[in-house]
Design brief:
Layout (H helix, E strand, L loop, with lengths): L14 H4 L3 H9 L5 E5 L4 E3 L2 H10 L4 E5 L24 E9 H14 L13 H11 L4 E3 L15 E2 L11 E3 L2 E2 L1 H11 L12 H6 L8 H19 L4
Parallel strand pairs: 3-5, 6-8
Antiparallel strand pairs: 1-4, 2-7, 3-4
Length: 242
């Protein structure tokens, strides 16, 4: 993807985690002969009839389908993007399940490449994929249809996770679920993202109840390390870090 001209830039995590949309442009470049593309990340699940889902999205003439999220001042990433998307231009979406028209992918790739000149020189904060895609779709006047139009999204978020062995399809209609994780990743997600890991030591806490399902798999030293990491992250965020 870097060889294709996309900037080797990310503010947190890794290149592909931060710029998840890069993979979409690579697919479109290598498999260009489709009118529409549906991307589903490894930890996302769609229940129901996939053929009907795609037919409905195409019948609506959607350029982009994803789950919109608030990009207001309470969204953590909003302040960082003010230099690129000022004055109400910022939009955001959760793109773990995302549908694009070919023209939307072509436009978005072109915008990323234009911004990638000299590896993004002049752009102090490289836009997160969740902000870039939705903001550029809106700026171009392309149609953005919410994922909820096509099914239930009550279990579609970044946290809490769903253990894959607990996954049960709803009795009626399609649904979108994220993240769905195996046992090892599920435990790691609980330890990494639960706001205060010390809740494990509180009787009847949700974290204690969940980890009780995995007797002997989480040591006290793991809990202490997880608590220390969370404390470090909160301190870094308080000082304006990412």
């Amino acid at each position: 993807m870097v060889a294709m001209g996309f900037a080797n830039r990310f503010e947190k995590g890794s290149l592909i985690w931060w710029n998840a949309d890069y993979t979409h442009y690579q697919v479109h470049d290598r498999i260009p002969d489709y009118d529409y593309y549906l991307f589903v990340e490894y930890d996302a699940c769609i229940t129901g009839d996939g053929q009907c889902l795609l037919a409905a999205m195409m019948a609506d003439g959607a350029d982009f389908v994803a789950h919109p999220i608030s990009s207001g001042p309470r969204w953590y990433w909003a302040r960082f993007h003010a230099g690129v998307y000022p004055a109400g231009r910022l939009r955001a979406s959760l793109n773990c399940i995302s549908f694009f028209s070919a023209r939307a992918l072509s436009h978005l790739a072109g915008r990323r490449l234009a911004m990638s000149a000299d590896n993004g020189a002049g752009i102090a904060f490289w836009p997160l994929g969740e902000a870039f895609v939705a903001s550029e779709v809106a700026a171009a006047g392309l149609s953005f249809v919410p994922l909820a139009r096509y099914g239930d999204v009550t279990r579609y978020n970044w946290f809490p996770p769903v253990l894959e062995t607990d996954l049960v399809a709803p009795p009626v209609g399609p649904a979108f679920i994220h993240p769905v994780l195996d046992r090892k990743r599920y435990i790691a997600s609980l330890l990494r993202h639960t706001h205060f890991v010390r809740h494990y030591f509180m009787p009847r806490s949700a974290l204690r109840r969940e980890l009780a399902r995995f007797s002997g798999e989480v040591s006290r030293s793991q809990l202490y390390r997880a608590a220390a990491r969370r404390a470090g992250e909160r301190l870094r965020l308080a000082w304006g870090g990412v």
